[in-house]
Known about the structure:
It is built from ten helices and twelve strands.
Amino acid sequence: xxxxxxxxxxxxxxxxxxxxxxxxxxxxxxxxxxxxxxxxxxxxxxxxxxxxxxxxxxxxxxxxxxxxxxxxxxxxxxxxxxxxxxxxxxxxxxxxxxxxxxxxxxxxxxxxxxxxxxxxxxxxxxxxxxxxxxxxxxxxxxxxxxxxxxxxxxxxxxxxxxxxxxxxxxxxxxxxxxxxxxxxxxxxxxxxxxxxxxxxxxxxxxxxxxxxxxxxxxxxxxxxxxxxxxxxxxxxxxxxxxxxxxxxxxxxxxxxxxxxxxxxxxxxxxxxxxxxxxxxxxxxxxxxxxxxxxxxxxxxxxxxxxxxxxxxxxxxxxxxxxxxxxxxxxxxxxxxxxxxxxxxxxxxxxxxxxxxxxxxxxxxxxxxx
Length: 369
């Protein structure tokens, strides 16, 4: 997938300057091609090398700007290939003449508009509401599911404070931070994590893949000191419920994972965890190994990781990789809830998806239902 994306971007860095040379009657295209290529390579260099995780404000700003630019180039390529011929045809029909410059300006405006809209939508989040019946539960339990906040280059004190205020307004018994809480060392500051102390509910944390791309020990230390109980393939008993927090891992030995950070597998590790006999929920960052969870008498599984595709057409790609990529599913007797994530990674955008806080009420299952 990465190779395909790089091929498309390489084509765009040649094609777009060439096409817009005709729109705007430019004399040379190679300086523009070079500039586009350098910016695109710069973004992927930051991303693939892990430099974006460094505690450096210049790196953080560059990562965000170049991410938006990369998406702008992709959208501009699509708009130019599809929209330019249509606009040229309409101009000829309506105004009886071709206006290449106007077509070029309109294509640029449409692509920029998509990026701007996506950026605006990435600044907010929505609360979604769910009810799940759990057999053997003796009272209603309210929880908030919050994977993928991605504290770092894009999310800081202001965004986290807003999340905490919203969580408190929902009045849950439990808050589940299901991985990718932090994605950059720039976020590893005690004053940022101190905001979690304002949460009035019990708080639990499980690892995602991004916790292993930063200073892991420092991140986990800050998380623990901020009042979050860390579950790394461990259980917590609360409110008549067993919470199984599973370390980030792959489903089994035959499946692939582009974000693999260890040699752990759900089909091996999940059966090892001692069980209490209480109704159990499983918290695992990635929506993989769902069949193994269902086989181990799990009432509900909570995951994130996919971001719901985050930016169109990303959801088409993510859906092909993750059969359970967003929303609610029923797998045997187990309910699976996959969040689109409370934050963003890479391009600071949401288009075709939204930042999500899931408010879930676990209710006792009625006899015969």
